[in-house]
Amino acid sequence: MYNYLDFEKPVQDLELKILELKKLAENGEAVDVAEEISRLEKRSRDALRDLYKALTPWQKVQVARHPDRPHCVDYIKGLFTDFTPLAGDRNFGDDQAIVGGFARFRGEPVPATGFSIGVSRLMTALKNLGKLDTSDVIAPVVVLVMDKDTESLGRYQKMVAELRAAGIRSEMYLGGAGMKAQLKYADRRGSPVAIIQGGDERAKGEVQIKDLIEGARLSAEITDNAEWRAARPAQVTVAEGDLMAEVKKILAAQAEERARG
Fold first, then answer.
1. Predicted TM-score (pTM) of this structure
2. What is the residue extent of each domain of the chain?
3. Contact assessment for residue 233 and residue 222, using Cβ atoms and an 8 Å cutoff
4. 3-class DSSP assignment, residue 14
5. Contact 182, 142 (CB under 8 A)
6. Which of 24, 51, 119, 236 has the fewest CB atoms within 10 Å of its CB?
7. Is the separation of the CB atoms in 153 and 176 below 8 Å?
């Protein structure tokens, strides 16, 4: 069954109505409903087209991560016939990211092989093979997602766009985790800076900027948890209009520190 996204609910409602009418017709419980089904199907197509003509930035992200998006096997089955996958015991010596087997293409027997991996895994593999020079690559600034309403998501996307326009690698956190987990994610990414704006900051026209590199260094010096939370080391609050200048200032200071070794 198709997995509908939240914003696709108008289409889902129409499709459920169509399905209901088709079942009634199959069971002989309804008079001729072909005309009504045809009308609803047209409404469904029109509604879907209109929705996808005006996607918000966050809706585009949802579509890119759609649970029903095609994967490697879907492409193989679309191109070939009689596909027979080959694999190990699915426990040892078998990489589930590699899909392979035998199939037929226009009646001719052929091998069919593909990959089902994300970009991050591919980049890691290239780095491990020494094919990717990352010595001068700085991890992206992470914009945390504190609120998930459409207006807030639009603000976070705008921050990312402005940072990228200034030549600063940046990304918006994708997922439903809380602030603590998002900061852990940023730490694992090696991100230099995290940007935080919840409802309180937004109401004041402010944004919090956390220097993750300096914060990690200071964490070794402050052992008391209460003192740590009270001090909020390496974290500043600035006006939204000063966001870019402050991020550049922090990144410049970090660059100087790296140069000093």
1. 0.49
2. 6-54, 70-134, 141-260
3. yes
4. helix
5. yes
6. 119
7. no
